[in-house]
Amino acid sequence: MLFTADSETLCRAFLSGANKLCNNKLILNDLNVFPVPDGDTGSNMSMTVTAACKDLLKNNYNTVGKVMNGIASASLRGARGNSGVILSQLFRGMARRLSDLSTADARDIAECLKEGVSAAYKAVMKPMEGTVLSVSRDAADAALKALETSGDIVVVLSAAVSASQESLARTPELLPQLKQAGVVDSGGQGLVYLLEGALSYLETGEVVELSGSEVSVNTTLDKKLIDANIKFIYCTEFLINKSAQSAPVGLFRDRISKKGDCMVVIDDDDIVKVHIHTNNPGYVMQEAVKIGELVNIKIDNMKYQHNERINAETQPQEPEKEIGFAAVAAGSGLENIFSDMGVDKVIEGGQTMNPSTDDILSAVNSVNAKTVVVLPNNKNIIMAAKQVIDLTEKNVVVLETRSVPEGIAAKLAFDPAVDLENNITAMNSAISNIKTGMVTYSVRNFTFQDTEYPENKIIGLAGGEIKAVGDDSFSVLQELLGQVVNDDSDIISVYYGGNVTADKKEQIEDVLEEKYEDCDVLVYEGGQPLYDYIFSVE
């Protein structure tokens, strides 16, 4: 039984839940409604909670309010994709309820879950049932109901977990797309993993351990120093090759945590990855050899590095302009196109690699302009981009571009001689007047026009729907264009991806110019991954 939770309990429960979510990242990615390679809910949610975990590991918060505020702030800045943003808003609402508390009882926990649901619903313009929103609501309602018979936090959270599992199982009945795909909602499943992991800690006293190396890419802490007053001087990193009689990694983690900050210890089968800022690297390594042999040892004096950076970064600043641009794109060709059009900062990202709110914020702050127009160029990046508006002193305008061609059309419509308001109107008009499509491949079996197709089939998408299926990407492109181009069309722009060779360009031009002789056909190297062709018709 647990009637009061302190800061350490809340912190460990969250880490346990986050670890379980991260361990199941690939399962979440596979819970994809569309049979296209954009199943990145698991990646986005795991990166979001990892940002919060990193904050907890480098800060010794001594109240539940401070723990939850840290989680909310870090997850917001680290939020990726719609699922990550919604999750960060859940944490934001929970933090609002716990903000002034040193400890929390069962009612505090139940009510903070409900407050989190309220914040998440408000963050979504068109909330949908059968998603992480309804799963979180049902979990919170069950927690409040459990208060009628128990003041035990474990009982209350157990009720929330059971309700979330039942709610998740109902999501296909609430969303026809889920039922057709034969999956449950991926965001809802991610929340269930998070709650299950937290409950596991409260029941056993053991934090769920990270079981894989996939998350290690995002747990290496940023070494950029912003203050010369560094408490722990030595950035210490190494790998441990475990021995047959290795000491417990959890015990090692607990011992070195008292000797520094910014600690990350990742247990990956036979290898342990260690990163810590400390004044005593000798002690850290002495404890580490109890686990096994040390390799790839790297120790940096961060005060020295900081002074070197200051000397290197003092450069004269150019005058600030009125309006600048930041755009998201993946592929060297597309990045060059945006740069050549005058976009100040191109953020690498797109399908399966959504940039975080913090990535977009960094890009916006790097643009030397009073107002920065952000082109997300992907529907799953728009929410993360909008969070930046409240995180910077710059004026930020997020245009809801859902594809690269829409972003290009918006930038082409921009006139530096016109004021911002009229430019926004012109750019939004350009976005609404362009038709786009793309050719990719299926990542699982699917049904199209009452016919079953296997994975790795070439598919053409337009208007958010599958419109064509085939075995050759160029043939599918032609079929798709045949459905989109009409008598009012003037310009066809095609951007070929990284899997299409440059010598194909001439063939594309010849075939399309012959077929659409009344249209201007423009073919560019996009270099984008996953999509052999992206096109627009104007």
UniProtKB/TrEMBL annotation:
| InterPro entries attached to this UniProt entry | DegV_domain_contain, DhaL_dom, DhaL_dom_sf, FakA-like_C, FakA-like_M, YloV-like
Gene3D superfamilies given in the database record: 1.25.40.340
Q: Which GO terms describe its molecular function?
A: glycerone kinase activity
Domain DhaL residue range list: 8-200
GO biological process, any: glycerol metabolic process
Task: Identify the domain of life.
Answer: Bacteria
Question: Which Pfam families does the entry mention?
Answer: Dak2 (PF02734), FakA-like_C (PF13684), FakA-like_M (PF21645)
PROSITE patterns noted in UniProt: DHAL
PANTHER family named in the record:
DEGV DOMAIN-CONTAINING PROTEIN DR_1986-RELATED, PHOSPHATASE PROTEIN
Protein name, UniProt field: DAK2 domain-containing protein
